[in-house]
Amino acid sequence: MFRYSCYPNGVNEVYDSAWAFAVMDSFVFCAIFLFFDFDAGTRMCALSFHVGCTAAFLDPDTEDIYSEGIRNMDISAGDIGPFVGAIIGYILALLIIGPAIQGNIKSGLAHAQEMAIKLAWHEGQLWTGIVKYFRGSDQTIEVDYLVQQAFLAQERTAQLNANLGNSWWECFDSGRTGLIRGHLLELHERMSYMNDWLRGLGVAMQSEDFGAEHDALMSKVSASMLRLNSCTADLLYHSCCLAIGGYSPELDSYQLDEDVKAPKAFKEAFEQGRKEVYKSDMLAEDSIEEHFVAFALSSYADYVEMLAEDVLSGSKVKRVSIMQSTIDGIKSIPCLNPDHGYMVRCFVAFFGSAFIGYVGVPGLMKPYSAGVASTAAILISSSGGTGSAIVSNMNRFLGIAGGSVLGSVLHALAVPCTPWAPLSGFVMAFIYLGISFFTKFKPPNYGFIGMLSAIFALKQLFKPCGQDESIGRAEFESLQTQMLAIFVSTAADVFIGNQSAGHLACHSYKELLHTVLESSRDAFDPKKPIDADRRAFRGKLVGQYAQAELIGHEATIEPRIYRLPWNGSFYDKLVEQSYQDTVNSGLLRFAIVEVERNPKLKPLLEAMTSSPAAKAIIHEIYARGTLSVALAVAVMKKDSMSALRAPLKVCKALTAEMPKPLDLDLNAAMLDILAEVNGGIAKSKLSSAKASEDGYCLAGTLGLLKFLLLFSFLKFSSCCFYSGCFAANRRAAM
């Protein structure tokens, strides 16, 4: 509108003042959206619509009409139709989700409510199963089932978070629905912590020997353990029911009082049982797993108690208002993308397509065509996303071509020149839309095909009867335009400064493991302060793991025209193995923070780090893990024939630097550490009301997690050296 307000007739002659103004205006507008950090959907729509208006403005022979400003809007103008259509679409979408404000529709929030209540019930049942199994006297295959159920609980929690992420637009965090969403977000966070302990319990149960001392201790604490678990499971389910209802009855606190009493009774029974079974009030080597389970169960009760207090007290939940969301979005816009290659790639792909459309291609498209650039605006991939971009572009073309062809065929069959043609056409369009949108929302790999197929098929189905030619010239030109845009965008993705997805995957994996290793080293270094923000640390680990997993999938489909195939199976194996390391690292940070928060437990932490065996174990974990990560990255980065021997060279160098296995026996090391720890606990003289604050349980948790990390990195280094050194030596011998 601004351009037409200055030049109502557009460009009359090439290179006149209107032409220069339009070119400069278009360049500045598009460059802003390409270089700055706008949302992907905003960038696509802005560039696509802008290039269409620019092409019409530059064409001296155009017959399109555009408004000359907001005060002089023409209802028949080419810019009013899409604008009004968008407004109508938004209104219809809001009308559909409007009842979600009262929680009465199958929206994202409704799915989250259903998922939350199921998750709370399954979580309680899973903890009950773990407690009953650990009370037993023998290790059975049931432990594998419980570990698998813990993994499924984690997936359900992730699905709850996905549903909640989609529900902000339904309520804007306001009213009763906003309160429900806030409580469910708090539930999700607590559930995430619980799931970490579940994964840790799986490893502890698999390592427990179920000896005579275990049976004797469990017989003394069984009743209190079951009561604590039962009270906690009931309180979790009750709190979840209140949370999804969006209200907070302050008088309904009987269940909370019962849950507060149960941890104290369990701690007293556990302490008394330890004294009677082991004949002393000390942490024994055979009781480490039992103390870890006691600490985990008590922490589970703490999480549920905090959740119940938040819900029952009616405390304010965190909300993001429309104003705050708008401010945050505006603040993020001025940030330039740090990947300069990505900006250059976007620039070349979009403006190259715009230039092709401006000059035209004889026999393919007329000059001043905006189709290529409009399509290229939605085909620009993300940084490092070459592989998925090519696959997505091919899927888009399949959707366009398939929709055009099927739409023409269905139009010929279902829209004859008969009185019932409107009815049959409507029924056919309804059926086709249902199938297309099922394809869009259900199978994630075919979302583009379903959406574009619906759009281009409707263009054919909405034609009047009699126009039943299979594919007319306009449709064929549209297919050619789409293919040309795909070619230009794909060429820019592949050849212009795009970072290799394989190298990005290696970098993401390296960052993840270094975070785990450095946190394990710093946790037992008295000279380095510990960050008490456990939420931020866990979020960092989860984000790095998700990034490593995502970019690894991207690496499997990136075009490696002149490089060797990506070693995807080896990478997936390493990433899968590293997940338990991230969980153990997060639990270790949790226990360390508990020690840091209580000054009386300082002697315990000093004892954990003062023994030579403890120092040797920490050094072993960090040194072996760091060098093994370097070898794994070298193995995965072999991109060319000349790099095939690189892992062998790296392997030889790392073998010389790799620390020798611990000189002392691990059992002797454990006894040494326990002697120091028991002395530190005796110095602390701390009396606690529950197991999650007990020095012995904290020491058992720290000791078990330390040894689990050691065994994991020993296994990791063996896997890396086998995959790197053995394979490299075999290739060298061939």
Automatic annotation (TrEMBL):
Residues annotated as transmembrane: 18-36, 80-101, 342-361, 368-391, 397-415, 420-439
Alphabetized UniProt keyword annotations: Membrane, Transmembrane, Transmembrane helix
Name used for this protein in its record: Uncharacterized protein
Lineage, highest ranks first: Eukaryota, Sar, Alveolata, Dinophyceae, Suessiales
